Amino acid sequence: MRNSLLVTSICLVSGVAWGQSTTLTGQVQDAAGQPVIGATVVEKGTNNGTSTGPDGRFSLRARTAQPRLVISSLGYSTQEVGTEGGAVTVKLAESSTSLDAVQVVGSRSQNRSVTDSPSPVDIIDVREVTAKTGQLDVNQLLQFVAPSFNSNRQTGADGADHVDPASLRGLGPDQTLVLVNGKRWHQSALVNLFGSRGRGNTGTDLNTIPAASIERIEILRDGASAQYGSDAIAGVINIVLKTSVNELTANVNYGAYDAKYRFDDKKFDGGNFNANLNYGVGVGKGGFVNATVDFNQRQHTQRANVPAPDGIQRREYGDPKASNASAYLNSKLPINENIYAYVFGGVNIRKGDAYAYTRFPTVTDDNGNPIPNPRSNPTLYPNGFDPIITSDLTDAHGAVGVRGTFGGFDVDLSNGFGSNRFHYGVDNTLNATLGAASPTSFDAGGFQLQQNVVNLNLSRNYKTVLQGLNVAIGSEYRREWYQIFAGEEGSYRKYPGPLSDRAAGSQGFPGFQPRNEVKASRDNIGVYADAELDVTKAFLLAGAVRFENYSDFGSSVTGKLATRLKLSETFSLRGTVSTGFRAPSLAQINFNTVFTNVVGGKPVDILLDRNNGPVSKALGIPALTQERSQSASVGFTGRAGSVLSFTVDGYYIHIKDRIVLTGTFADDDPEIGTILQGLNVGQAQFFANAVSTDTWGLDAVLANTLGVGAGRLTTTLAANLNRLLIVGKAKTTPLLTGKEEIFFGERERAFVKASAPPYKVNLTFDYSLGRFGALVRLVQFGHVLLYDYNGDPNKYRDRLTTDVALSYALTNQLRLSVGSSNIFNVYPSFFNPQATENGGAWDAVQMGSNGRFYFAKLQFRVSKQ
């Protein structure tokens, strides 16, 4: 009865609101009177909105008695208008050089819109995406809306279980530069050791920034080291934080997976709860303070019980459990009409636990006979045990600066400091050398990366030089610190006694030892200059040059040239050529540890030696140096018949001396075997500038908005085609001559190539009718080829996933959305879990490995008139 009354009440409220509404119509034009396609039209104070069609016209059913409209479009100044006169015609002014100019990554000209850019740029409206899809964190949002972006959740991959590696155009996570509000953001302290993406790389943990704090994400799909510095070989991701004022938004989201392959009777798992709140207040004339708080909790999934030919080597396999709490701030504080200060940043605290490999009570000897497992203890764990690797991550970044106009120059001076600290623990474990007296949990130590950046940028636009010249110069000073800190003694020590022949340290994840501890730092200074010249209204030329010097390995000079030619008002050609570089991260130079891997069902302790460590020196591994790149892109943009808009860009990226994680050398190797035996480890591997790669690809985006019946249908087709080739043989040292297949063999090469599928295609249908909305999204993932520990090829075949979402505005301020991601419950190809990288029936590839996801979202938004 209560449920019936609730449903009836909702229907009555909705019906009253519907009955009181009126239809608003109008057209949005630019300053020349041409229609603006895809402009956003929102009824102020509500979540009611639409976009303009191919003729710039819109129709919107109002929900308030005296509605006002807020109209915006990228590259134009936002405008608010009343509707007292019936149909409205709105002319948007282009954003010009001002303190409020739109930040578009890839250009320092403040009067350049994204459609004018000579480089391909994607603009993702995060509010629109989060309102209509089941993904909650930034990595997964981008994975399914940006074809050139790839990110996977991993399991059984130690630290990578807690930080999802992400990449652009099939390159490494550390070959994409991340900015926030146009300022360099810090990387994670983690080095990825497992998995098909990010192996041997560091990267930026995008999930530390809550989606609720983000207004939009700009993805520059082009080499940009000359413009922004190290790491921008594949491109740049710029996260723009919210600037709204007098508007309160709140969201509550929950979803769970269809637990098809669980071994118990549980129907759902991996429950994901998210709640967030965002509010902004005005400060002075044109200033604001906008704040966000966000909480997310994700439960384990269990996918160990799957169709597989040869049994299992893990009883627990699935997504890690994690809880995130974040607080973020963005502000602009006017000082006078020409100068303002700004402060932005936030903190994220994450706690998680991930499954490690099972330690069964018995194992088989060389003759196939069962014997007690020397890595377990029958007194503590009669049935064996499943270690849990816990994580305690603290990530914070803050930036403060002042910006203003002085003598015709736009001057921006800032300082930003960021820190990422990763602290491990191990539960449900033991130190086998202590027998039944062993503790069952340990502090395993961890690592931390910190970065401080001082930045000075000056730019000026000369409107009288031909059709406009923009000149920018600047400098950046960056200092970085990296450290590894040891765990408690029992997490790593081999204790003397009757069990001293057993493996040392905590099972599942041996702790960092005092000999692993390191404190390292370096300085970097860079200077740059770039210019953009509109030779005519149709022809643009741009160029940039940058010099950087690192205190630990030397200098680099990079450059970039770009052009754009408008053949008509509806069609443009564009192209770029550039050189780039990426400095080896402090983590890659200094990281060293002993970790346990399971190969063919047998645990092996592996030493990852630091770049100047004893084993690396014994093999003559040289000091890491920078990666260098040459890249080019060519493409076209336009629209057909004012109905279809499109961009197509081909690209080529050559990278010399890529830093990779090598294969493993056994303790019987004649050069280093005795060293490994003395360290009580079975194998060793290293970081090295080992290979060169060529990447060829194509990005295409087509979009169309049409009136269908009384509603509006937006159709988007986005695709990325990508092929990575490893050029020549791996570069080894004289002592490793003849061991190239061990140093960087077929298996390691496959991991580099699998950073992205050969193609990914996204087709989205988004329909709105009054209070109702519907979205259908199809994503086709190309095949991925990996090799297992037996040397057998594992070809993960093409897969198509389908997402469906329905939404309805219950009131002017409240919207309910429900739906399913991967509604047809598609899984990757299954393989032998005894031989895969992470001990499950599949590796971390393609669209993930959890199956169908159901979700519901309640979104509340209200603003003051």
From TrEMBL:
Residues 300-319 are annotated as: Disordered. Residues 1-19 form the signal peptide. Belongs to the TonB-dependent receptor family. It is found in: Cell outer membrane. Residues 347-822 form the TonB-dependent receptor-like beta-barrel domain. Residues 114-236 form the TonB-dependent receptor plug domain. It comes from the Bacteria. This is TonB-dependent receptor. It is a multi-pass membrane protein. Keywords: Cell outer membrane, Membrane, Receptor, Signal, TonB box, Transmembrane, Transmembrane beta strand, Transport. InterPro entries: Beta-barrel_TonB, Beta-barrel_TonB_sf, CarboxyPept-like_regulatory, Plug_dom, Plug_dom_sf, TonB-dep_rcpt-like. Pfam families: CarbopepD_reg_2, Plug, TonB_dep_Rec_b-barrel. Its main location: membrane.
